[in-house]
Design a protein that fits this description.
single chain; about 425 residues; alpha+beta; Helix Hairpins; 20 strands; elongated
Amino acid sequence: MDKEIPKEQLKKERRKLWMKWGLIGAGVVALIVVASDFIFSDSVKEEDLVIKPAELGTLESSVSASGKIVPLYEQAIVSPVSTRIMEVYRAEGDSVEAGESLLRLDLQSAESDVRRMSDQVSMKNNEIEQTALNNATYLTDLEMKIKSKEMAVSHLKAEVANERRLDSIGSGTGDRIRQAELAYSTGLLELEQLRTQLRNERKAHAAAYRSKQLEGSITRRDLLEMERTLEDARVKAPRKGTITYLNKDLGVSIAAGEKLAIISDLSHFKIDGDISEGSAGKIAIGAGVNIRIGRHTATGHVSNIIPQSKEGMTQFSVIFDNDNDPHLRSGLRTELNIIYDQKDGVVRIPNGQYFQGAGDYVLFVKTTGDRLERRKVTLGESNFDYVEVVSGIKPGEMVVISDMSTHKKSSKLRMKPKS
């Protein structure tokens, strides 16, 4: 006869069985979860990704612009007269010293004008001398008349005294005294008239002489200007440099003001930059500039800002901190980052193609193992090298900064190991 199993033992057996099946079930569920995550999550090759760490650091906020390298010193030579090119002595690319001849122009007309003006100067000088001589002669004659009149008045004065003396001794008459006094008074008036005339004539002749001198001075200045124009028309290098442009069209008519040559100093450079009106308010004279020329970088500062905008762009100039850099070439295009602020202790990630300006972004962050998590982040200021993380990423997290546009709808990604 079988022995009856105690109820307590049966309960223990059932609990063991339940625990066994529970562990098996949990393992199956976990396996299903892992397998489903493995099967249904998107994957990406690890070698196709650029993953960089977020870090705490300093961020120099900057605004982007573009520019072109140009010579620091450049001088254009224009024709001061209408003429023709007769000979060409140099070629583009030649190095020249100050005073070296570049071209020979047809200057016959200009030289004739100079000779004609020189003759006019001589005529004006003769006129001035003749005016001075005429003035001296006229005023001398007037002075002699005054001296003669003074002698006559002195004689009339003596006549009045003599008549009064005769009348006192009874030999004279009242009529003769009055006649003598009248003649004397008339003589005084005539003398004063002559003296007044002399003063006025001196002023008038002095004014006329100054006018002649002014005419002569104007003519001499015109001659000097024509001589300078003629000298400029000989087309010489104004300074040491390199010929970057030269008009070589022999026999072609050249209008006054037309460009003949450009002399540039190719040992020192600057940048002529352009920036949109919306960002122009962030730049200031003296602001530091990070410059990128292809793969090469340099530094400089803003030296000038043109206040008037053109077609929605504002022009400015940048001076290199080292303008003897061998990477500098006239005409090269550059990327510019103009620094306008500096922040310390910000979370930053390397700059890349993903960044298109401050705002909200979706980036992938490495979580554990080979997993990438889609995350919404807010980015702020930037420069060539770094972008400020306002929210969404912590220091030390690994962030994908390569192009992930093909996975923008994926919430999670699995990295395939490098082959």
